[in-house]
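Retry 2 of 3 after timeout on previous attempt. Resubmitting structure tokens to design endpoint.
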């Protein structure tokens, strides 16, 4: 079989642009991640919504994710916080998707939380955009089950440096 015959028989490859799920949250908790494996969180704190949107737009451009391939969900039950986020991210739906978030590989997290926590605050307490701090978070699953790798910290550091 010649090279020409081989290339004629090949199916054309169609480019599949990446998909992205953007998750709105009001906090990050270790319980969001499965206890199987280790994760590295890349957290970029910002103090303005405009800077947060800029970072998000830059990320989607770098990852070459078309807007139509972005799925928007949130777990924010505090309506004033959601309303503030939606000023710059109108793509977030009105209603939260559930009560408890669990990380799925590839999720990008948009976090809006009070600069000065006030535990037990009523859901109707009005907050201003200046009362919140915003985080853009990407997650990398670094290893398999937490107990499956027994190394000293030096060899783990070397392994992580090779991966990045």
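Retry 2 succeeded. Sequence:
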């Amino acid at each position: 079989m010649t090279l020409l015959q081989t290339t004629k028989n090949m199916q054309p490859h169609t480019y599949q642009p990446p998909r992205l799920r953007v998750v709105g949250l009001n906090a990050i908790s270790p319980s969001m991640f499965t206890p199987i494996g280790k994760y590295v969180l890349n957290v970029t704190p910002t103090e303005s919504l405009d800077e947060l949107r800029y970072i998000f737009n830059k990320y989607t451009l770098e990852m070459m994710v078309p807007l139509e391939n972005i799925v928007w969900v949130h777990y924010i039950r505090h309506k004033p916080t959601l309303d503030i986020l939606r000023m710059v991210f109108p793509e977030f739906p009105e209603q939260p998707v559930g009560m408890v978030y669990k990380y799925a590989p590839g999720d990008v997290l948009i976090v809006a939380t009070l600069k000065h926590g006030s535990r037990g605050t009523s859901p109707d307490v009005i907050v201003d955009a200046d009362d919140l701090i915003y985080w853009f978070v990407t997650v990398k699953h670094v290893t398999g089950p937490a107990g499956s790798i027994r190394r000293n910290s030096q060899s783990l550091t070397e392994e992580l440096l090779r991966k990045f």
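Attempt log closed. The mean pLDDT is 82.
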